[in-house]
Design goal:
heterodimer; A: 174 residues; mainly alpha; Arp2/3 complex 21 kDa subunit ARPC3; B: 276 residues; alpha+beta; Thrombin, subunit H; 28% helix
């Protein structure tokens, strides 16, 4: 239990620093590929967390990112929305026998297709909200839309890569 | 009453979601820009320090480029220095010029963090209130304007880049003197638009766009960009001008914060004027 908490806090710190110090400075394809890898932390939170905790953690993580990018409320609202969507999407994607205690929403535990659907949907929700709030207008709708979708794809690829690079061999229940 | 509580209990997660979203949206709208600035900003001491560490590492990567730019700038200043001029006539004696008065002074600052590829861009400078940086001061680079100081902490300042759709800077065409507004709607770090220049103005591709001055943010005549494309929408009274920015926003290393020494005087006058 304590191990899980420490692992998650470390993951949060590493991802937020990687985001703020490296990824925020990437200039790929002129703003069409802006990855927000820190959402991986929110994606990998354990299944057992109650909804209120998920929402609060989401808002907190977003606020932390906002500190780094001087965008008050932007990441916070996107992450809160994403966590709200996570509660719904996890219900939709639940296996027939439900989630087992101690399971983590990761590729090795849940399988590639499951994770792709789960992460893809949530990242899309997060990025669409974030990119539209960032410009705060609807003219140039398609430009913003494509930016959000292409960046979401990029983030998803990075999330999968990160999972493959850090995945430990399957060893019983954690 | 009990049913009400039961209902509230059942939808408690949705309620929490709504409350958090409302908090975020209030922050986003920034009810009060000053409070917001204090609470969340990259000029925040901790975040500023972390970005300074990062800059300490990445600085080595572009030392060559920074050196070249500094040397170029040095050469520019040297060529304006007194020693670069030979007296035309020895009969004349230099006297202290009291007709010209210094209006602007510059505070050199290092950019510790910057974005240029997002839809709204910011820079963080390593100089803050203790160095005399204040909100609403203009920021210029060696080749042109960069942005306006938005938030200040004792040792850092957060700057709204000209690459933000909400920034409007008063500019003019150097050759003709026509006045317009710089507006970033191109989503491209190298270009921007100039709006509100009427069609009768004879603008040419290649014209230099410079700051207009007079708004106590930028001195007049600081280069902004060069007209790249020029088109006229039928039925519109204004030119559609796209310019190439002279300052490479992805390369900002050292910048200057513009301090208008007459700002206080101007502000008091304008306030006195607008007061009922």
């Amino acid at each position: 239990m304590i191990g899980t908490i420490i692992a998650n806090i470390l993951r949060l710190l590493v991802l937020v620093l990687v985001q703020a110090l490296i990824l925020d400075h990437l200039d790929v394809a002129n703003g069409y590929l802006v990855p927000y890898l820190y959402v991986l932390f929110l994606l990998m939170l354990p299944f057992e967390l109650p909804a209120w905790a998920l929402l609060l953690i989401g808002a907190g993580t977003g606020a932390l990112m906002d500190f780094f990018s001087s965008t008050p409320g932007m990441h916070m609202s996107a992450c809160t929305l994403m966590m709200f969507a996570r509660i719904r999407i996890l219900k939709l994607l639940a296996p027939r026998e439900g989630y087992e205690f101690g399971m983590l929403p990761t590729v090795p535990r849940m399988g590639f297709t499951w994770f792709l659907t789960y992460a893809g949907l949530l990242i899309l929700v997060h990025h669409l909200w974030l990119f539209f709030v960032e410009v705060y207008r609807f003219d140039g709708f398609f430009s913003t839309f494509f930016r959000a979708v292409s960046s979401a794809t990029f983030t998803l690829v990075l999330c999968l890569l990160a999972q493959f690079l850090t995945a430990r061999p399957e060893r019983g229940r954690a | 009453m009990r049913d009400l509580f039961r209902l509230l209990y059942r939808i408690r997660d949705t309620l929490l979601f709504l409350v958090l979203m409302i908090v975020a949206m209030v922050l986003l709208h920034g009810g009060n820009a000053h409070h917001r600035a204090q609470a969340i900003s990259s000029s925040n001491a901790l975040v500023g320090t972390i970005f300074t560490w990062r800059k300490g590492i990445t600085d080595y990567a572009n030392l060559k480029e920074v050196n070249r730019r500094l040397a170029e700038e040095n050469a520019e200043w040297r060529s304006r220095h007194e020693s670069a001029y030979t007296p035309v006539e020895d009969l004349f004696v230099r006297i202290n010029d009291t007709i010209h008065r210094q209006q602007y002074s510059y505070i050199a600052a290092k950019v510790v963090n910057s974005t240029w590829h997002k839809q709204k861009n910011f820079l963080t400078l390593d100089k803050g209130a203790t160095s005399g940086v204040q909100e609403e001061m203009g920021v210029i680079g060696p080749n042109g304007i960069v942005g306006v100081v938005r938030e200040v902490s004792p040792h850092f300042a957060s700057v709204s880049s000209i690459l933000s759709p909400s920034m409007r800077t008063s500019v003019r065409i150097r050759r003709t003197g026509h006045i317009g507004l710089l507006y970033w709607d191109t989503n491209d770090a190298a270009t921007a638009s100039v709006i509100d220049i009427a069609k009768h103005a004879r603008i040419l591709v290649g014209d230099t766009v410079e700051t207009r001055g007079g708004d106590a943010t930028f001195p007049a005549g600081i280069p902004v960009g060069v007209v790249e494309t020029l088109s006229a929408e039928p039925g519109s009274n204004y030119h559609e001008i796209q310019i190439r920015l002279t300052e490479d926003m992805s390369q900002s290393g050292f910048v200057y914060v513009v301090k208008d020494l007459q700002r206080a005087e101007r502000d008091t006058l304008q306030q006195a004027h607008s007061a009922p």
